[in-house]
């Protein structure tokens, strides 16, 4: 307000009066005003150099009024009247100026949108204390969206009143405080006293209690009875084990359980919708694929048991109703907790959200988790990169399951095969096994659909030299009627009862990476795992030609091959009869005990889901995994970071790439004349930093021998690869 009394508006009044008097209305008064205005101009210009428009108008009309009255009075009276008016304004202005220093907000900053050496230049209107609100180059790398959000706030903070509610007032520091303490896109200022831990939620959500009664869960599954038949059956069967696992989790890791908060979680299984047309729900009881249904069942059970508020759908109509329950009119976080915290869906559901509900998708993009059995690689996540390089990526040249441009860790896999993605997994159905039970020389074939048996006759004939061969196939097998005993489609409990009587579980090469081999191993059966040479990939298999991954499967179940192995898993070329015979003999002689890796137990999955839901966050920067978990490894020529880390018994941690993308890591040799910014899945490496964060990649193998990748690795808990030792 001080600008109303001093500077330009103040001078306007004098100039208006002076000009009027000089024009002949009152020459004597005009000359006096001219002299007085020169003195006051010097005073005013020393105080401020600009003025508010509204102040200018006020003073202008006051001066005009005074001028009109001066025509009807003597010069001395007019001069006295003007002097009183002007000196009153001057006195008030000086008084406000003196008070100004005591009224300045601690946050009253302005900034020039100029970048110098990776900083935003920041200055004070009148510096009282040096309180830093700058964003350093290191902070900009650690918090990659901070600068962009700060720039948006400068123009956009008045687009909704909720920003002002959180204290945003148009000053640089108010943007910084909001973006660091409310939305957490920026680091918290060191001089702010109310620092919250990264793992804290924005608001104190309702504390959780365990949900032990399934009736509440099943009321949420209503839009298509067939779609939920398998899910309900599996959850009901395993529910006592889930409850026991929760009690054990509370005993072993009480802090990780008691600190959790209640989230609103939307679960949409798009692959079961009518629009998808896959009919997985209908086929689940007649020999259809069950792998995805197993994973969804276990995820739903874990989230419900942990006490979260679930909204479940398999049809688009129900999805829309569930979304309407949450008010998304506010661009800011809402204090009452009515916000979508997480969305679990699949690629089908993701494509629907992007295509038909794009506005909502853009708002909730960071909350989405995509169940993606085979994983997604960086080359297929970026539409621009895929379009430019599709000829060198093999396959069909199409990318129907990719181009989503999410953080790669938002894709959640069935097995821990891709370090770029997050391992969600499933729980192996385990039953007590009597070690004294007599097992027959029986081989149970892994292949419940007739097409899986194509070209398998020679293999089955070889196996029959040593054991009976049993099957659980939904179709007739006319070519194998004299070779196998077919039980038809069995329920889960019937299948496990049969597994407890056999010695061998024989793979036919398909389906890839299903849950059944781990269930067989859990009952003490030897799994014969078909090897692939050449490996199955986009370039060698029709099944993978459209998949958004460059993975190369060396066997039907690479996890069983690499992480379990002998005596539980025997990997062999099933087209080589002599190798098959040797493998059958070895399997019949071995007596493996039932075995399940911890990460595939119900307790292991419950622990993992609890940590991932509580700590993994893509809406703002968090320190999960903790920074101290990072270990740097330099890959050899033509080696991926995933392989480089595993050579040191570590895993590649994609979220750490942004910490490595800095000069001190990229110019250790001191030989780089300049550090180039490139958009490549191989960056960062010596003298080259990553220009596109979407292309950070653990799995990508350089095609240029001179490139040696710089890799961020971490350790992992034995039997729980998704979590580092300091992640709990």
From TrEMBL:
It is found in: Golgi apparatus membrane. Keywords: Glycoprotein, Glycosyltransferase, Golgi apparatus, Membrane, Signal-anchor, Transferase, Transmembrane, Transmembrane helix. GO terms for cellular component: Golgi membrane; nucleus. The keyword Glycoprotein applies. One of its GO terms (molecular function) is calmodulin binding. It is a single-pass type II membrane protein. Pathway: Protein modification; protein glycosylation. It catalyses: N(4)-{beta-D-GlcNAc-(1->2)-[beta-D-GlcNAc-(1->4)]-alpha-D-Man-(1->3)-[beta-D-GlcNAc-(1->2)-alpha-D-Man-(1->6)]-beta-D-Man-(1->4)-beta-D-GlcNAc-(1->4)-beta-D-GlcNAc}-L-asparaginyl-[protein] + UDP-N-acetyl-alpha-D-glucosamine = N(4)-{beta-D-GlcNAc-(1->2)-[beta-D-GlcNAc-(1->4)]-alpha-D-Man-(1->3)-[beta-D-GlcNAc-(1->2)-[beta-D-GlcNAc-(1->6)]-alpha-D-Man-(1->6)]-beta-D-Man-(1->4)-beta-D-GlcNAc-(1->4)-beta-D-GlcNAc}-L-asparaginyl-[protein] + UDP + H(+). Its main location: Golgi. It comes from the Eukaryota. The chain crosses the membrane at residues 77-99. Belongs to the glycosyltransferase 18 family. This is alpha-1,6-mannosyl-glycoprotein 6-beta-N-acetylglucosaminyltransferase.
């Amino acid at each position: 307000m001080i600008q109303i009394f001093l500077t330009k508006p103040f001078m306007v009044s004098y100039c208006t009066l002076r000009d009027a008097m000089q024009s002949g209305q009152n020459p004597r008064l005009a000359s006096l005003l001219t002299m007085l205005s020169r003195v006051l101009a010097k005073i005013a210009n020393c105080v401020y150099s600009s003025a508010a428009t509204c102040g200018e108008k006020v003073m202008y009309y006051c001066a005009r009024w005074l001028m009109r009255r001066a025509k009807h009075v003597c010069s001395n009276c007019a001069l006295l009247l003007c002097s009183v008016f002007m000196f009153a304004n001057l006195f008030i202005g000086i008084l406000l100026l003196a008070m100004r220093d005591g009224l300045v907000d601690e946050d009253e900053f302005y900034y020039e949108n100029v970048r110098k050496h990776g900083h935003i230049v920041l200055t004070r209107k009148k510096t009282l204390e040096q309180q830093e609100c700058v964003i350093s180059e290191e902070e900009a790398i650690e918090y990659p969206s901070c600068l962009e959000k700060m720039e948006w706030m400068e123009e956009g903070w008045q687009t909704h009143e909720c920003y002002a509610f959180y204290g945003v007032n148009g000053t640089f520091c108010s943007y910084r405080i909001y973006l660091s303490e409310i939305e957490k896109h920026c680091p918290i200022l060191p001089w702010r006293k109310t620092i919250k831990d990264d793992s804290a939620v924005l608001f104190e959500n309702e504390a959780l209690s365990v949900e032990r009664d399934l009736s509440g869960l099943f009321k949420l599954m209503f839009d298509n009875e067939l779609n939920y038949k398998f899910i309900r059956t599996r959850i009901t069967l395993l529910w006592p084990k889930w409850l026991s696992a929760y009690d054990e989790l509370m005993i072993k890791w009480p802090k990780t359980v008691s600190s959790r908060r209640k989230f609103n979680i939307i679960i949409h299984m798009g692959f079961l919708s009518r629009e998808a047309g896959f009919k997985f729900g209908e086929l689940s009881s007649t020999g259809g694929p069950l792998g995805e249904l197993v994973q969804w069942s276990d995820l739903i059970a874990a989230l419900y048991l942990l006490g979260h508020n679930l909204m479940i759908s398999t049809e688009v109509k129900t999805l829309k109703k569930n979304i309407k329950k949450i008010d998304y009119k506010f661009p800011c976080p809402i204090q009452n907790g009515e916000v979508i915290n997480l969305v679990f869906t699949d690629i089908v559901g993701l494509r629907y959200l992007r295509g038909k509900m794009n506005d909502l998708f853009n708002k909730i993009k960071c909350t989405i988790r995509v169940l993606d059995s085979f994983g997604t690689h960086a080359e297929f996540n970026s539409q621009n990169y895929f379009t430019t390089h599709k000829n060198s990526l093999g396959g069909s040249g199409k990318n129907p399951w990719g181009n989503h441009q999410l953080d790669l860790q938002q894709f959640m896999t069935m097995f821990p095969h891709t370090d770029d993605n997050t391992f969600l997994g499933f729980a192996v159905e385990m039953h007590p096994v009597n070690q004294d039970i007599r097992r027959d020389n029986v081989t149970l074939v892994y292949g419940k659909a007739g097409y899986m048996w194509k070209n398998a006759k020679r293999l089955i004939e070889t196996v029959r030299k040593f054991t009976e061969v049993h099957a659980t196939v939904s179709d007739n097998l006319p070519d194998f009627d004299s070779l196998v005993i077919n039980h038809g489609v069995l329920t889960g409990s019937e299948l496990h009862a049969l597994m407890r009587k056999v010695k061998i579980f024989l793979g036919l090469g398909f389906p890839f990476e299903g849950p059944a081999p781990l269930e067989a191993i859990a009952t003490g059966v030897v799994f014969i795992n078909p090897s692939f040479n050449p490996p199955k990939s986009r370039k060698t298999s029709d099944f993978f030609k459209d998949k958004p991954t460059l993975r190369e499967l060396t066997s039907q179940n690479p996890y069983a091959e690499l992480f379990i192995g002998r005596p539980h898993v025997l990997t062999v070329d099933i087209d080589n009869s002599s190798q098959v015979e040797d493998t059958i003999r070895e399997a019949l002689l071995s007596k493996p005990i039932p075995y399940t890796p911890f990460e595939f137990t119900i307790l292991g999955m419950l622990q993992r889901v609890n940590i991932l839901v509580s700590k993994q966050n893509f809406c703002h920067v968090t320190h999960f995994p903790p920074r101290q978990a990072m270990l740097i490894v330099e890959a050899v020529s033509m080696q991926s970071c995933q392989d480089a880390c595993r050579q040191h018994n570590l895993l590649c941690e994609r979220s750490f790439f942004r910490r490595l993308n800095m000069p001190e890591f990229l110019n250790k040799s001191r030989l780089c004349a300049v550090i180039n910014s490139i958009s490549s899945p191989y960056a960062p490496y010596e003298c080259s930093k990553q220009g596109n964060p979407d292309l950070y990649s653990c799995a990508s193998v350089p095609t240029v021998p001179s490139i040696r990748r710089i890799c961020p690795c971490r350790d992992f808990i034995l039997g729980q690869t998704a979590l580092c030792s300091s992640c709990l």
